[in-house]
């Protein structure tokens, strides 16, 4: 049995504004035996019911537990614990309780079963058993922990905020959560918050009636109405203007939207998943993002890791990309793999796929095996990860090999940046056109 945390304050990453308001983190509970097992379950604002009945959110195999014994509900101050009129009671340590708000990592007991309640950061979610979730793949622990959080989130209707750098797969993560939820057969609508002109955001999200404004020649359903019954993915959430943030909060609270120019609101049933590469907590502190909206959205928050933090997944990702084009990869090893692993990947998995596709195209083969590919990186000379010097060979040979890598990368990049115009590329490089053509032949760009 786990002992409750003795701290009086939640030891968890909690952003706090100057006026003392707190941003409530995600909370989870874990039943320590019975059918509930040891898997953490997210606590939502709608609440989860624990008991012996098969209709409960968490089923406990304990003869002393009532059919509907306990409800846990996420609240502004922590987690509201309510005994549902059980026969044998709910206990916090030795005190029988009817209703209490837990504000720190605690444990309650129902029958002989301990139920752990804690901020999500306090419970280490075990890695997902599989090396994939939806279209995402990864054997590393950091990726499989992300998969575990996604799997937990998919079982609920909780709002989700996915953080991470550009190219880490935030949209794929959102789509995977949707496809593994009860809403999988309903719409999944993507909204790029950064790509909508500010004056059109309200119309794009909530719709408008014909004649509502200049240019509104016909009525239009907004993204929330189109997503009714399903999920809406708000990409680049941090780019939403403050006015639109306020209207989004009202939609989340009331589950209705008011199309521009409409007299009556429209009811919608939509699960919201959002993503951002910005620090929302810092934006809240700087009054650039609404505190109340952050609180409402951040029921579940997790971060997609940068590729440089799990480069051991690169071989698996390469194999996945080959499978997606129904092509055999051959052995994924050797000098090419070494170069990919030692690159810094500022564009993350998206850049890896682009580098691989560029190599496929330049190979000139319909089904090029991995060992035949030559790779070009846009940021090769700016990367924090310098190519490893091979000291197993004499100095002269090692130097020639290093220079060959530089020569290949330089020529491929300058040709690409000149849109294939050899004369322009030669002028930029300060080389004779014939000399550049010979270098291109050497690098396999032309025959």
Task: Explain what this protein looks like in three dimensions.
By secondary structure, this protein is α+β, with helices and mostly antiparallel strands. 31% of the residues lie in helices and 19% in strands. It contains 13 helices and 22 strands. The strands form six sheets. The protein has a six-stranded antiparallel β-sheet with strand order 2-1-11-10-7-8, with no helix packed on it. A hairpin with a 2-residue loop joins strand 7 and strand 8. It is globular, with a radius of gyration of 27 Å. The N terminus is likely disordered.
Name the descriptors:
447 residues; alpha+beta; six-stranded antiparallel β-sheet; 13 helices; 31% helix; globular
Physical arrangement of strands within the biggest beta sheet = 2-1-11-10-7-8
Q: How many beta-strand segments? A: 22
Distance between the termini: 70 Å
The residue ranges in which pLDDT falls below 50 over 5 or more consecutive positions are 1-24, 380-386
The helix count comes to 13
**Portion in beta strands:** 15-25%
- Structural class by helix and strand composition: alpha+beta
Shape from CA axes?
A: globular
Averaged pLDDT: 81
Query: How large, in whole angstroms, is the Cα Rg?
Result: 27 Å
Binned, the helix content reads 25-40%
Biggest sheet, in brief? 6 strands, antiparallel
């Amino acid at each position: 049995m786990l002992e409750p945390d003795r701290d009086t304050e939640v030891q968890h990453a909690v952003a706090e504004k100057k006026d003392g308001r707190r941003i409530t983190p995600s909370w989870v509970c874990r039943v320590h035996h019975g059918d509930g097992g040891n898997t953490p379950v997210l606590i939502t604002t709608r609440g989860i019911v624990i008991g012996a009945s098969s209709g409960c959110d968490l089923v406990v195999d304990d003869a002393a537990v009532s059919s509907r014994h306990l409800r846990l509900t996420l609240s502004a101050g922590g987690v509201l614990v309510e005994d549902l009129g059980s026969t044998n009671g709910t206990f916090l340590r030795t005190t029988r309780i009817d209703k209490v708000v837990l504000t720190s990592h605690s444990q309650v007991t129902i029958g002989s079963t301990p139920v752990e309640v804690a901020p999500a950061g306090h419970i280490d979610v075990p890695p997902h058993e599989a090396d994939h979730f939806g279209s995402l793949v990864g054997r590393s622990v950091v990726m499989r922990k992300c998969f575990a959080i996604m799997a937990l989130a998919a079982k609920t209707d909780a709002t989700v905020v996915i953080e991470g750098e550009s190219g880490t797969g935030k949209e794929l993560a959102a789509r995977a959560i949707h496809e593994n939820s009860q809403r999988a057969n309903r719409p999944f609508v993507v909204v790029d918050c950064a790509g909508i002109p500010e004056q059109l955001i309200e119309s794009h999200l909530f719709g408008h009636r014909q004649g509502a404004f200049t240019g509104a020649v016909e009525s239009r359903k907004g993204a929330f109405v189109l997503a009714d019954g399903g999920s809406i993915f708000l990409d680049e959430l941090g780019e939403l203007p403050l006015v639109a943030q306020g209207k989004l909060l009202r939609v989340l609270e009331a589950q209705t939207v008011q199309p521009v120019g409409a007299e009556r609101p429209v009811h919608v049933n939509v699960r919201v998943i959002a993503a951002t590469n910005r620090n929302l907590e810092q934006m809240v502190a700087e009054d650039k993002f609404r505190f109340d909206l952050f609180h409402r959205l951040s029921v579940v928050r997790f971060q997609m890791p940068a590729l440089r933090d799990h480069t051991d997944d690169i071989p698996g990702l390469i194999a996945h990309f080959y499978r997606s084009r129904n092509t055999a990869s051959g052995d994924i090893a050797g000098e090419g793999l070494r170069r990919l692993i030692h690159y810094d990947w500022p564009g993350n998995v998206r850049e890896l796929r682009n580098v691989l596709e560029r190599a496929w195209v330049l190979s000139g083969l319909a089904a090029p095996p991995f060992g035949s590919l030559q790779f070009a990186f846009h940021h090769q000379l700016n990367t924090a990860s310098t190519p490893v010097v091979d000291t197993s060979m004499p100095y002269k040979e090692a130097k020639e090999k290093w220079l060959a890598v530089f020569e290949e990368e330089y020529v491929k990049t300058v040709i690409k940046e000149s849109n294939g115009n050899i004369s322009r590329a030669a002028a930029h490089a300060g080389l004779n056109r014939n000399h550049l053509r010979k270098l291109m032949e050497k690098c396999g760009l032309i025959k």
